[in-house]
Amino acid sequence: MRLVVVSHTPHYRGAGDVVGWGPTVRELDALASLTDELVHIAPLHDGSPTNACESYRAENVRFVPVSPAGGPQLRDKLGIVRASCSWGRTIRRELDTADAVHVRCPANISAVTLLLLATRSLPKRRWFKYAGTWDHDSGVPHSYRAQRWLLLHGKRLHRGIVTVPGSRYPLPEHVRHLRNPIRQDAIDFDRVDLPDGEVRLIFAGRLERSKGATTAYLVAQRIVDRGHAVRLDMAGEGPDRRALQSLEAGAVDGLHVAVHGWLSRSELDHLYASAHFVLLPSLSEGFPKVLAEGMAFGAVPLAADVGAIGQEFEALDAGIALESSSVDDYASAVIDLITPPSRWAEASRQCRRASEAFSYRTYLEAVAEILRPSG
Predict the structure, then answer these.
(1) pTM exceeding the 0.85 threshold for the entire prediction
(2) 281-331, pLDDT tens digit by residue?
(3) Beta 198-204 vs 277-280: how paired, if at all?
(4) Which domains are present in the chain?
(5) Less crowded by CB within 10 Å, the N or C end of the chain?
(6) Closest alpha carbon to 368 in 127, 155, 130, 184
(7) Residue pLDDT, tens place only, 117-159
(8) Of 144, 76, 140, which Cα lies nearest the Cα of 110?
(9) Where are the beta strands (DSSP E) in 78-227?
(10) Which of 36, 50, 45 is nearest to 65 (CA)?
């Protein structure tokens, strides 16, 4: 089988190899095991890659670069229009000899691919993965809402299977729940027990207000106010990084804040292994990988009850979803779980057990079923 994948995953020229965003590269390496050839069409950016970028390991992956486009300014929007024609030519060329296509949504290039697929009958095997918030429109760009509407209501046009990380509501037959995989190898580490002194928190993701980065800092500060020493590690980049670094320098007594930027897989794993809690007080999510990744290391996730987070935590019997965005409520949830420490230890063990639901074996079995020839 020749599988064409279209995504907006950023790629860069590394030291001799093209490298891409690590979580996507690892996932496509695994998907390549189901194919004779996997062709990944995605933007190739100028500049230096971050520590979170990796090169492909599977020998049957072929990367096809396209020009990046998009951004907040009007000239950026016009750049999308100019780039769309080039994207369409490249995608059409690769689809001509494809047995199946996988489109990762939402993104500008995925919108172009959706429209292109609506005009052609081949390939018949089509899989659309929607990674954004599926259930509500708050804070979601209009172009993303349009893609979601088309995926949900336009089955006759796109003629494919859609997978989402979860939903609060019943899904139509062509839309399926599919958990994102988090790792292929077994985790071997020494679990950091909850000490009497320092509580260790991690926030991993884009450093911006809507993702809850500032709230995570305020939660850590409130826990200190209640008499507990706290270490907060923040891994990621974003518009609020500079402001958070200024808070890092002026942290109150008993609070140690470290803003790391994007980290490599091994560096991030080290932080998960030393964390007691993963904080994600985000305003808009599906079910982000960082929660499951932290659970695999025994870090208990505390997250806003948005997207599929509450439903997943309930199904897994692990993690805490908070309906309130109150800093006091997050701080209270942490303190309740560490008093006594044995309560946190049991929650940590349950998180490790629950993380097995995000295995690559389960994921690849589900994908193989989606891509199986019909008839």
Answers:
(1) yes
(2) 988 777 888 999 999 999 999 999 988 899 899 999 999 999 988 999 999
(3) parallel
(4) 2-181+359-371 (3.40.50.2000), 198-357 (3.40.50.2000)
(5) C
(6) 127
(7) 999 999 999 999 998 778 766 667 788 889 999 999 999 999 9
(8) 144
(9) 100-105, 125-130, 161-164, 175-177, 198-204
(10) 45
